[in-house]
């Protein structure tokens, strides 16, 4: 389980990919034998959202991520793009999901994000929350609290690594 606190250069995605590749190449693990869970909160939370949310909520500015096609803050989720012209295509969320990676999104983080965006946009928290949840990439799992999920995963034998 990777507890993702940092985003720069797609650190959580790169780490997960490196782990899965090492398990396959060095230890001859078969598909599905190695499991990765990425807990999203803090800066990496933007990984979880579709392009429409990136454009609407200016996640490119939040992530300080420049779109190589425009030279401006990204209005699309480059962490989910498998376009070979994009910088993280090899470690994109869908590619990792196909390798069995699970992504957990912390409800406490969502609550704080909703509050911030609702104030900034003069919208109701209920409307922003519903929109954000509807904007999750396929397979993103909202959990009550990532910290509890981490503890439960460790109780079931998962190894833990904090990406700071």
What attributes does this structure have?
single chain; 164 residues; alpha/beta; five-stranded parallel sheet
Overall strand count: 5
| Strand order in the sheet with the most strands | 4-3-2-1-5
Beta content: 5-15%
- Sequence of secondary-structure elements: EHEHHHEHHEHE
First-residue to last-residue Cα separation: 14 Å
Overview of this structure, please?
The chain is 41% helix and 12% strand. The chain is α/β, with parallel strands linked by helices. Strands 4-3-2-1-5 form a 5-stranded parallel sheet, sandwiched between helices. Strand 1, helix 1 and strand 2 form a beta-alpha-beta unit. 32% of the residues are buried. The model has no long low-confidence stretch (mean pLDDT 94).
Write the layout of secondary structure elements.
Elements: E1 2-4, H1 11-25, E2 37-40, H2 51-57, H3 59-63, H4 93-98, E3 102-106, H5 107-121, H6 125-134, E4 140-143, H7 146-155, E5 161-163
Parallel strand pairs: 1-2, 1-5, 2-3, 3-4
Quick structural gist:
With 164 residues, this protein is of the alpha/beta class.
